[in-house]
Specification:
Layout (H helix, E strand, L loop, with lengths): L2 E5 L8 H14 L4 E5 L5 H5 L12 H5 L13 E3 L6 E3 L5 E3 L4 H9 L8 H9 L5 E5 L6 H9 L2 E6 L3 H21 L4 E7 L8 H11 L25 H4 L4 H18 L5
Parallel strand pairs: 1-6, 1-7, 2-5, 2-6, 7-8
Antiparallel strand pairs: 3-4
Helix pairs in contact: 1-10, 5-6
């Protein structure tokens, strides 16, 4: 049975999509079967792997959620069309993806009006569990319908955050939502911890962030993702940094995170 992780933070711009793409590819580099689900209507996760409406027409998450029940796992994407040759090529890192478009926002608003629809993503994810070792769900900013659906479908939650007060406040809000509401409907979900990214050792903010998390009694990962300007340009190459530059500081950090996660969850060690 695959492990399902939602990456969520109330704050936007904290690295949820970057973290989902790089962690997923790093897990795939270890030989794990990985499915990424883009539950953010900004649709950046699919675009980061070269999927867009022109090169990958077909089912998106909004189409999948619009169907009340599925008897078989819906179609996923394992390749994209090379813009030069027109031939299909495997997605970077060997991951598979369920992409979305901005139409997902409209779909989620409609689902919010339907009784019981909050469990629909969970039912779909359960169909994928037998086929994948890891299912990572990228979520939008805020704690609305899509973020709640992702956490209801997840076994674990990772909160990406930069070393900044607003990001940590967003992490606290996720922790509170899990404890106060989500566990009522998904009692097995647990917070794996806060993944601090865009860390520059020259800044004191990183130390302050760690102190703030300790005061809030929220776990954090030992691995921290270094700041690197080139990470922002990785999507233009249809691949995350861990694939493009595996020996870079960022690449090595995600590789270590992937190894730690495999060891930790395989042994079912609590945070």
């Amino acid at each position: 049975m695959g492990q399902v992780i939602a990456l969520a933070n109330h704050k936007g711009g904290v690295g949820k999509t970057t973290g989902t793409a790089n962690l997923g590819a790093a897990l795939a580099q270890l030989g794990e079967r990985v499915l990424l689900i883009d539950a953010d209507p900004q649709a950046n996760l699919g675009e980061a792997f070269g999927l867009d409406d022109d090169t990958a027409p077909g089912l998106r998450l909004e189409d999948i959620l619009a169907v009340e029940t599925w008897s078989e796992p819906p179609q996923v994407w394992d390749s994209r069309v090379d813009p030069d040759s027109g031939e299909p090529i495997a997605l970077a890192g060997g991951v598979h993806i369920v992409p979305c478009t901005d139409a997902l926002a409209t779909t989620s608003a409609s689902l919010a009006l339907e009784d019981g629809s909050e469990q629909r993503l969970r039912d779909i994810v359960d169909l994928y569990r037998q086929r994948y070792d890891w299912i990572l769900i990228d979520t939008p900013p805020g704690l609305g319908v899509l973020s709640s659906m992702a956490m209801l479908a997840a076994d674990w939650v990772i909160v990406p955050a930069r070393p900044a007060d607003f990001d940590i406040n967003g992490a606290v809000k996720v922790a509170d939502l899990l404890e106060d509401e989500i566990v009522e409907f998904n009692p097995d979900v647990q917070l794996l911890g806060v993944l601090i990214g865009q860390v520059d050792r020259r800044w004191n903010l990183s130390h302050d962030t760690r102190s703030a998390l300790r005061q809030a009694d929220i776990e954090r990962f030992d691995v921290e993702i270094p700041f690197a300007v080139r990470v922002g340009s990785a999507p233009r190459y249809s691949a995350p940094t861990v694939v493009l530059e595996p020996d870079s500081r960022v690449g090595r950090a995600y590789q270590r995170l992937a190894r730690d996660l495999v060891a930790r969850l395989a042994a079912e060690i609590p945070a």
